[in-house]
């Protein structure tokens, strides 16, 4: 699970949850690997994201590395900022751990890089 | 008959016998004698036949083929056979008929030519009535049939016309009128002042398993003159509950039973004797048709000859048939393919369950059905599925190409992720409920596991969504609507969505879909294929079972809700999957589908608040919806 994905996830799938965002990350295994930097992609993506949630997620993984708490008005020209954003969006991968619903404390497992956002875990066991 | 004419006739019959049975005439005398011009077909009974031959010596056997006007006798010695042939050809007559005989080289073994055993579920209680009771009922039938004969009066006998006028039989109904066009009654229309008469009720109360609660309330009286019959039919299932009881009076008759969906099963010829009670239950009631052939003679089991057949002359017969009308109209018999009630429900999950009133119960069943017949199946077939799914449909490519670069797209029910990396300048995140498929999709892009009816993603967040071949896996309309609502929820206002579902119409505008066309590659479905027996499967759910038709691959859809089998397919290189997978995946898995009829996707989308329909089109056997979020 890359942090771009984490930024889109919410526990809204649980009954009674209002927003369910952002989900707290309890990482057990994190991997980083290089992904080709695409400046245009990062520029287009940043306005679609919940930036403070991304920072929070990066911080919990110890990957904040000087990312500003707000996106500045001239971010499109800030190559250094864009590269940092690219790194935490696409190069950091939570392989195993848990995601926690901010409203109910419900935990969603992340296994082998795939977050399981099913409300009813026992009913959807994958291996049959 | 002069000798020349006799010889000519004899040659002709012997040729026919050779053709029918492979038996030839013999120049030398044998112990096998053939009567060339008399048999069961023209009314020769086994008793008469045997009597004829006993005059010439000991008889080992008589063999009489049905539907033939010839028959065979096996004499104990060749001498008595010679005596018989000479004597018969020397102007032996029977019923003023001239007979002629010949030696043959063998006789046929016809022990299985007629099956007299009743079909499963049919019970016959012989001598259910004593003679006085039969007389009482016969007198009563005569009285009611004579007292009124105005054909327009519904209380009188009516004459049922079957084929030619010789085949009329008379019927009279009590309780409810039996409609011979539908083989049913209308439970809403009881016959006024015509309940089952007391004289009959006293017998009904003695029927096995009958009490006040299930007392029959419909009676049909049939009067058959010799030669009259009733066409083969199954009493329609849903109008009646419980067994059907029939009292036989007067002459015995043979009732013919025929298996309704397996023509190879031999017909049964069941003798209904006078004073007997016949009880139709189970297979004999629901799966076999019954009828009486209009003829004056019946073929019955020979009393003297094991496996032999003889003829029985019919006299006047009456039957009193008692049924219990079923006001609910629900039939849960074990023969859904023959059942009017279950057929009207089959192919519709909502209606196949008797829980329409209880939305929660229906929801639970739908969930179970999807878990067992969508989720579990895809998990089991994931790797094989992955290998067979790589072609991108043109409409989907076109939709994705229309989106601005670097749009953030969600692939709802991404499966093996074949679209996740289709355009490198889009950021696409896929999700699916099936982990097995996600493991394949993961190699191509970002994925998470989630349920389309409760998506674990935040609202108003994606620029576009595609949802290909997903919504047709939901078992109820409300769940299919919920799927659209959830997709709409996670889209930004103004964002676009694309939904593909399987179409019930696989041949539109005379263009066969890719799906139908590909069947040629597998197995040609010839036009002369006999009517395929429809197969139904029972899906076990906690509240009972749901019966669904199993789709025959590469054929048109007959139903909307059905199971589609997934079987191991040959790979494109001509080989199979890895051998170790063969056993596991060669199992047949049934996937649940709701196939959409023309207009259905449009109507469903119309009911989703905030959804704007941009386009509905048809592509390769799919109905496709393009929409925007308000």
Automatic annotation (TrEMBL), chain A:
Annotated GO biological process: rRNA (guanine-N7)-methylation; tRNA methylation
GO molecular function, one term: protein heterodimerization activity
Record InterPro entries: Trm112, Trm112-like
Signal sequence range: none
One Pfam family it belongs to: Trm112p
SUPFAM superfamilies per the UniProt record, alphabetical: Trm112p-like (SSF158997)
Family: Belongs to the TRM112 family.
Protein name, entry field: Multifunctional methyltransferase subunit TRM112-like protein
Organism: Notodromas monacha
TrEMBL record, chain B:
PROSITE patterns: FE2OG_OXY, RRM
The entry's keywords: Iron, Methyltransferase, Multifunctional enzyme, RNA-binding, Transferase, Zinc
Cofactor requirements of the protein: Fe(2+)
SUPFAM superfamilies: Clavaminate synthase-like, RNA-binding domain, RBD, S-adenosyl-L-methionine-dependent methyltransferases
BP term (GO), one: tRNA methylation
Molecular-function GO terms, alphabetical: S-adenosylmethionine-dependent methyltransferase activity; tRNA (5-carboxymethyluridine(34)-5-O)-methyltransferase activity; tRNA binding
Domain Fe2OG dioxygenase as annotated: residue spans: 215-326
Domain RRM: 31-106
Pfam assignment, any one: Methyltransf_11
UniProt key word ATP-binding: no
EC category name: transferase
Parts forming coiled coils: none
Reaction(s) catalysed by this chain's protein: 5-(carboxymethyl)uridine(34) in tRNA + S-adenosyl-L-methionine = 5-(2-methoxy-2-oxoethyl)uridine(34) in tRNA + S-adenosyl-L-homocysteine
InterPro entries: AlkB-like (IPR027450), AlkB-like_sf (IPR037151), AlkB_tRNA_MeTrf/Diox (IPR051422), Methyltransf_11 (IPR013216), Nucleotide-bd_a/b_plait_sf (IPR012677), Oxoglu/Fe-dep_dioxygenase_dom (IPR005123), RBD_domain_sf (IPR035979), RRM_dom (IPR000504)
Key word Transmembrane present: no
EC nos: 2.1.1.229
GO cellular component: cytoplasm; nucleus
PANTHER family assigned: ALKYLATED DNA REPAIR PROTEIN ALKB HOMOLOG 8 (PTHR13069:SF21)
Annotated family: Belongs to the alkB family.
Function: Catalyzes the methylation of 5-carboxymethyl uridine to 5-methylcarboxymethyl uridine at the wobble position of the anticodon loop in tRNA via its methyltransferase domain. Catalyzes the last step in the formation of 5-methylcarboxymethyl uridine at the wobble position of the anticodon loop in target tRNA. Has a preference for tRNA(Arg) and tRNA(Glu), and does not bind tRNA(Lys).
This protein's name: tRNA (carboxymethyluridine(34)-5-O)-methyltransferase
The species this protein was found in: Notodromas monacha
């Amino acid at each position: 699970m890359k942090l771009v994905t984490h930024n889109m996830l919410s526990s809204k799938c649980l009954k009674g949850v209002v927003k369910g965002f952002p989900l707290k990350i309890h990482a057990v295994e994190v991997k980083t690997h290089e992904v080709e930097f695409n400046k245009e992609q990062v520029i287009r993506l940043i306005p679609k994201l919940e930036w403070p949630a991304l920072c929070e997620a990066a911080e919990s993984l110890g990957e904040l590395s000087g990312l500003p708490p707000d996106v500045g008005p001239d971010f499109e020209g800030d190559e250094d900022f864009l590269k940092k954003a690219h790194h935490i969006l696409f190069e950091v991968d939570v392989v195993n751990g848990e995601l926690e619903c901010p409203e109910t404390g419900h935990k969603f497992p992340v296994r082998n890089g795939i977050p399981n956002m099913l409300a009813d875990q026992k009913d959807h066991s994958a291996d049959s | 008959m002069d000798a020349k004419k006799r010889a000519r006739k004899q040659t002709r019959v012997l040729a026919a016998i050779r053709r029918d049975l492979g038996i030839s005439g013999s120049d030398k005398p044998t112990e096998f004698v053939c009567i060339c011009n008399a048999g069961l077909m023209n009314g020769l009974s086994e008793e008469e036949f045997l009597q004829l031959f006993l005059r010439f010596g000991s008889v080992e056997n008589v063999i009489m083929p049905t539907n033939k006007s010839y028959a065979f006798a096996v004499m104990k010695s060749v001498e008595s056979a010679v005596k018989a042939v000479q004597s018969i050809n020397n102007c032996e007559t029977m019923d003023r008929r001239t007979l002629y005989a010949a030696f043959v080289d063998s006789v046929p073994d016809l022990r299985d030519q007629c099956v007299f055993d009743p079909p499963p579920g049919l019970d016959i209680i012989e001598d259910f009535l004593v003679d006085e009771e039969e007389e009482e009922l016969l007198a009563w039938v005569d009285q009611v049939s004579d007292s009124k004969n105005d054909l327009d009066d519904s209380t009188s006998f009516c004459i049922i016309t079957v084929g030619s006028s010789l085949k009329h039989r008379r019927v009279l109904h009590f309780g409810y009128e039996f409609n011979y066009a539908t083989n049913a009654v209308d439970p809403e229309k009881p016959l006024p002042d015509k309940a089952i008469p007391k004289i009959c009720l006293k017998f009904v109360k003695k029927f096995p398993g009958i009490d006040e609660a299930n007392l029959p309330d419909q009676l049909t009286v049939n009067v058959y003159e010799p030669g009259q019959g009733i066409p083969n039919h199954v009493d329609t299932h849903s109008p009646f509950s419980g067994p059907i009881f029939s009292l036989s009076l007067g002459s015995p008759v043979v009732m013919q039973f025929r298996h309704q969906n397996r023509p190879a099963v031999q017909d049964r010829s069941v003798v209904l004797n006078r004073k007997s009670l016949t009880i139709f239950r189970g297979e004999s009631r629901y799966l076999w048709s019954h009828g009486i052939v209009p003829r004056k003679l019946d073929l019955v089991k020979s009393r003297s000859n094991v496996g032999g057949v003889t003829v029985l002359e019919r006299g006047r017969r009456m039957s009193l048939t008692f049924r219990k009308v079923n006001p609910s109209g629900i039939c849960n018999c074990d023969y859904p393919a023959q059942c009017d009630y279950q057929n009207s429900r089959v192919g519709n999950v909502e209606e196949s369950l008797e829980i329409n009133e209880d939305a929660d119960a229906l929801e639970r069943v739908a969930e179970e059905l999807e878990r067992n017949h969508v989720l579990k199946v895809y998990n089991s077939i994931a790797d094989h599925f992955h290998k067979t799914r790589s072609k991108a449909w043109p409409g989907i490519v076109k939709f994705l190409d229309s989106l601005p670069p670097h749009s953030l797209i969600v692939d709802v029910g991404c499966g093996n992720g074949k679209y996740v990396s289709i355009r490198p300048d889009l950021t696409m995140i896929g999700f699916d409920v099936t982990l097995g498929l996600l493991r394949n999709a993961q190699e191509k892009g970002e994925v998470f596991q989630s349920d389309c009816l409760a998506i674990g993603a935040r609202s108003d967040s994606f620029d576009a969504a595609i949802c290909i071949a997903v919504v047709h896996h939901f078992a109820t309309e409300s769940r299919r609507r919920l799927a659209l609502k959830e997709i709409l929820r996670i889209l930004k206002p103004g964002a676009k969505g694309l939904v593909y579902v399987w179409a019930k119409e696989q041949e539109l505008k005379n263009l066969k879909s890719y799906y139908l066309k590909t069947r040629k590659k597998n197995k040609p479905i010839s036009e002369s294929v006999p009517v395929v027996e429809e197969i139904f499967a029972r899906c076990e759910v906690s509240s009972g079972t749901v019966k669904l038709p199993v789709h025959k691959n590469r054929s048109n859809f007959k139903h909307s809700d059905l199971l589609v089998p997934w079987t191991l397919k040959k790979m494109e290189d001509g080989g199979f999957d890895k051998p170790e997978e063969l056993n596991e995946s060669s199992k047949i898995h049934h996937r649940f589908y709701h196939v959409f009829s023309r207009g259905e996707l449009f109507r469903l989308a119309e009911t989703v608040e905030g959804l704007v329909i941009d386009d509905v089109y048809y592509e390769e056997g799919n109905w496709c919806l393009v929409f925007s979020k308000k």
